[in-house]
Specification:
Elements (H helix, E strand, L loop, with lengths): L1 E5 L4 H12 L4 E5 L10 H4 L9 E4 L2 E4 L1 H11 L12 H30 L10 H13 L14
Helix pairs in contact: 1-3, 4-5
Amino acid sequence: MIKLYDFLSCPYGQKVRIVLAEKSLTYDLVAVDLTQHENRKPEFLRLNPFGRVPVLVDDDTTVYDSTIINEYLEDEYPEPPVLPPIGSSAMRARARLFEDFADTSFTPPVGQLIAEASKPEGERDPNRRIVRSCRKVAVSTNNRDGVPSKGQGSC
């Protein structure tokens, strides 16, 4: 039986839950409350010494990092595939580029944007981090050939 240790609002865990749903895999969700530092408890650190979610346990196999979890799921449960077929190296590489872009260039500034926008107006960053985050998102997604470029949005 698959167990997914996750914090529900974590975008990386959401990415894994999408793949589990696409593959129609059943799993037990184990909520890890990051606000209560449950990811720092010894029992969780035995699963992932870095103390990050998500973590997937499939029988005797423990995998952490959302990208690696999804690649494990693709290898272990190949049907239906979520990546282009094995003969399409260029398309598989393109899919991985988009995933890497989402993880490293899109999700972090969007998270900052959401965090700042969620604060009452008087508590927002006076240095206008929200504006910088908006610019990073806009610049990093504005590429004519459709392939995101890492680092385009850096200030």
